[in-house]
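Field log, afternoon session.

UNIT: design team B
ACTIVITY: writing a sequence onto a fixed backbone
BACKBONE:
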């Protein structure tokens, strides 16, 4: 049953039922880390184009698993399930039918040069299809695709934690035109909508086809995903609902939407008028993809007060993970009717979340009120996707004008480096037309953090260096801040009766996002990690991040862990110990900049693992050091084949998390990197 009635104690919307298949809560001794998802090593069978066997090594590396090539089904079945098996398209024969059910089947197709011939009927029964370009190859996109389809990331669950979400509707006939501005376009957006029906494929005779081919759509989607980390909403809007997708054959919708599931789109938009068996089949096949049930009415006669409106919601909720209902209106009164409808729906159903809007100028107020996936436009887009659409900045202005977003003061408290952060945050406030002020404060003895949070209009703060979690005036702490023992962000939560100041830690999320940029989370599970630091406190956020990825033993050099995170963490006592250790998959250095070269001998020592092709050697090195340093351990690590990240990467991901915590706005990583020049370190 999809509709969950609200229990008396449930005030909020829960997008995922508590028993979502992949979300595990693993308890590790004292510390509960709630971010763990499915960490099992997947069993995969990959079909690849002739001459493209290099992709196998990439996939295996991203997954941290070994791989082999099989020429026949018999050869494939002899391999352990944890070994990734690749089969070249030219070796696909009848022995592969019926399909192998013990492994997930993915067809890998390179879009370059010759258009690779399809993988024949085998392509049809593959669970997924991954389209990639060789030059350049985007490993981050591969990691994201695999993490998503394998249930190791759950963007829908992450978005459900936000109090408001938006989507940017791209209206380009060809995504290439969006790419130069994508970072700016997506500021304030939580997801990017690809309007497949608006794509225009040029035919050899210079005209455009009525419907873009799946091949064209696949390449457009690939281009978009290579350039944004935001979840994709794949929409085939029909001609009756202000789109261009022809309605004469509903099976065409099935074909295009089913393919979107195979391409690993995070969301598909499924129109409610489609025959029930199509909607049901898509729901049964959706895997990690979520369904947005969509209903649009342009008749101007639709009434939110009618019994029909309620029925439509219920019908949408049968297969929808989100139910979207949108009507073209001509009076402002209809916004109040919609708000009444929204409140009834929210009282009666805790799931699925409802996204309700009015189109047209008269309906614009509803775009300020809606909280779930409010569509936004941007002045740089060629056309607006629907009458009355507003930009993120316009919506924020409207929310301020109607009293929903009071002007608040946010603070950066701490060291001189904060000024770069401060400039960046001001830039975001401007870009998004947020009414807030940002103030930088050097922490002085007299001006304690406690005084600052008591100031009128205090909206939140980030603190660098972090505060100890024992600060008596911050009674509420997130689990992460408590376990790490450090508060780097203070968030104000407004309850019905009182305000609470919550101590948060955003740094561990920045480290985790960095670690999972080029590897799926399960690549870390049960592997060893080595952590170098002068003090446990400098390494605590990294330990938490590693544990959230289910890493195996953590070895430390330079300190001995004794805090709440110390289980499974052991100090290396000397060179003899080092020889005995399992080779680390990840090395993180939290040494100060002037000492950071100390890691180089270890990088060298653990590089010569002498592994053979077919065995993954993927390793990751993160240097958390800031400031001028002697030598460049990152360059050394890179030259030795480590995936290498520095403080600027961690800092940019931490900023993404911090902006979400402080002002509830999504500012994508690429924008942070673009807008902050060399980085925020
Ligand atoms: O469903 C919607 C909402 C929308 O129609 C709007 O009103 O902003 C814009 C469409 O692109 C999107 O698919």
């Amino acid at each position: 049953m999809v509709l969950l009635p609200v229990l008396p104690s449930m005030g909020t919307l829960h997008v995922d039922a508590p028993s979502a298949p992949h979300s595990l809560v693993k308890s590790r001794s004292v510390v509960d880390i709630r971010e763990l998802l499915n960490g099992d090593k997947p069993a995969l069978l990959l079909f690849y184009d002739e001459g493209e066997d290099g992709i196998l090594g990439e996939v295996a590396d991203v997954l941290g698993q070994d791989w082999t090539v099989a020429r026949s089904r018999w050869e494939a079945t002899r391999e352990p399930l944890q070994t990734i098996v690749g089969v070249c398209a030219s070796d696909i024969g009848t022995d592969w039918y019926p399909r192998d059910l013990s492994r997930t089947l993915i067809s890998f197709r390179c879009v370059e040069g010759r258009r690779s011939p399809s993988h024949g009927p085998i392509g049809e029964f593959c669970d997924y299809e991954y389209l990639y370009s060789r030059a350049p190859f985007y490993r981050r996109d591969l990691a994201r695709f695999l993490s998503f389809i394998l249930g190791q990331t759950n963007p829908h669950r992450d978005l459900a934690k936000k109090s408001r979400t938006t989507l940017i509707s791209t209206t380009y006939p060809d995504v290439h035109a969006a790419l130069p501005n994508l970072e700016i376009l997506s500021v304030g957006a939580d997801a990017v909508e690809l309007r497949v029906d608006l794509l225009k494929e040029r035919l050899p005779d210079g005209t455009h086809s009525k419907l873009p081919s799946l091949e064209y759509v696949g390449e457009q989607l690939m281009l978009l995903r290579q350039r944004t980390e935001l979840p994709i909403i794949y929409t085939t809007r029909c001609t009756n609902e202000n789109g261009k997708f022809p309605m004469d054959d509903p099976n065409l919708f099935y074909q295009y939407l089913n393919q979107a599931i195979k391409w690993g789109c995070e969301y598909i938009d499924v129109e409610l008028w489609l025959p029930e068996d199509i909607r049901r089949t898509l729901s049964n096949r959706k895997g990690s993809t979520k369904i947005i049930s969509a209903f649009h009415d342009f008749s101007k006669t639709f009434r939110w007060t009618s019994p029909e409106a309620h029925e439509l919601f219920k019908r949408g909720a049968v297969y929808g993970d989100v139910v979207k209902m949108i009507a073209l209106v001509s009076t402002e009164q209809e916004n109040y009717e919609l708000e009444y409808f929204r409140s009834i729906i929210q009282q009666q159903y805790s799931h699925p979340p409802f996204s309700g809007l009015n189109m047209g100028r008269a309906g614009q107020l509803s775009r300020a009120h809606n909280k779930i996936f409010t569509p936004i436009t941007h002045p740089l887009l060629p056309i607006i996707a629907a009458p009355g659409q507003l930009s993120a900045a316009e919506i924020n202005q409207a929310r301020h004008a109607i009293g929903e977003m009071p002007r608040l003061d946010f603070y950066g408290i701490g060291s001189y480096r904060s000024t770069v952060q401060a400039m960046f945050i001001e830039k975001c406030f401007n870009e998004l037309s947020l009414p807030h002020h940002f103030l930088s404060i050097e922490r002085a003895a007299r001006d304690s953090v406690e005084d600052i949070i008591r100031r009128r209009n205090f909206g939140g703060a980030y603190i660098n260096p972090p505060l100890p979690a024992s600060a008596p005036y911050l009674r509420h702490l997130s689990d992460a801040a408590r376990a790490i023992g450090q508060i780097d962000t203070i968030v104000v939560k407004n309850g019905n009766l009182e305000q609470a100041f919550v101590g948060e830690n955003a740094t561990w999320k920045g480290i985790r996002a960095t670690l999972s940029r080029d590897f799926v989370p399960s690549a870390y599970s049960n592997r060893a990690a080595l952590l170098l630091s002068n003090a446990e406190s400098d390494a605590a956020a990294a330990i938490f991040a590693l544990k959230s990825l289910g890493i195996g033993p953590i070895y430390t050099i330079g300190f001995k862990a004794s805090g709440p995170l110390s289980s499974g963490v052991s100090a290396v006592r000397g060179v003899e110990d080092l020889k005995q250790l399992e080779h680390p998959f990840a090395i993180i250095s939290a040494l100060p900049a002037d000492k950071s070269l100390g890691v180089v001998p270890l990088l060298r020592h653990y590089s010569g693992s002498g592994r053979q092709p077919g065995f993954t050697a993927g390793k990751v090195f993160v240097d958390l050091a800031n400031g001028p340093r002697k030598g460049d351990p990152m360059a050394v690590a890179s030259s030795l084949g480590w995936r290498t990240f520095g403080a600027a990467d961690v800092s940019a991901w931490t900023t993404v998390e911090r902006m979400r915590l402080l002002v509830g706005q999504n500012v994508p990583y690429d924008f942070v990197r673009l807008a902050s020049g060399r980085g925020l370190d």
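LOG NOTE: The chain has four domains: 43-148, 153-401, 409-505+653-676, 519-645.
NEXT ACTIVITY: expression trials, pending approval
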